[in-house]
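Job type: complex structure
Entries:
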Amino acid sequence: AQKVTQAQTEISVVEKEDVTLDCVYETRDTTYYLFWYKQPPSGELVFLIRRNSFDEQNEISGRYSWNFQKSTSSFNFTITASQVVDSAVYFCALSKGSSNTGKLIFGQGTTLQVKP
Amino acid sequence: DAGVIQSPRHEVTEMGQEVTLRCKPISGHNSLFWYRQTMMRGLELLIYFNNNVPIDDSGMPEDRFSAKMPNASFSTLKIQPSEPRDSAVYFCASRGTGWNSPLHFGNGTRLTVT
């Protein structure tokens, strides 16, 4: 069975702090895809990153960085120098099956609150 | 470029009424997905289409739910008759043809059934 676990339900930090959102996944597929989406208070789902199972290189995009480790089945997301605008619910997701079909299994989400 | 467009943004209806949610995918995208978000179950896939053909509807909760995609630029999700437990945010998403294309979501329709 496939499953995504985001153990942190809510995180609260003060602006400029670094924060890491954890994501642990379960799958029997040898090829799979992992995603992070952001859901701000306005409600839309915004795509942040996609990672293939055969590419374990970490990625950095501005203040965002992602650490993918197959050995621990984790795909953690770090925001450096957090800002109030980062306040949102963040979802980690796993593609179902061995191709990027868009059939995503979502975690329950982590609500991040960044206080000024 | 326009993203995935959903209408209406909000829908309030009474139990037993028919509800139709609409979606226009991103032009050129060949896959369309309907997801539902609730507090209890989180985000879950209801159905998806590839080239206008329904591929997997195993997530559709029951026969009261139906979805159509008459052409590449339009899809509907219908609930008839609606029930209070159908209250949720319904998202439509589309995806391009490239193997590494991500899913792009619309802004969602918040449905309240009283």
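Summary: Chain B has a mean pLDDT of 94. The first strand of chain B starts at residue 5 and ends at 7.
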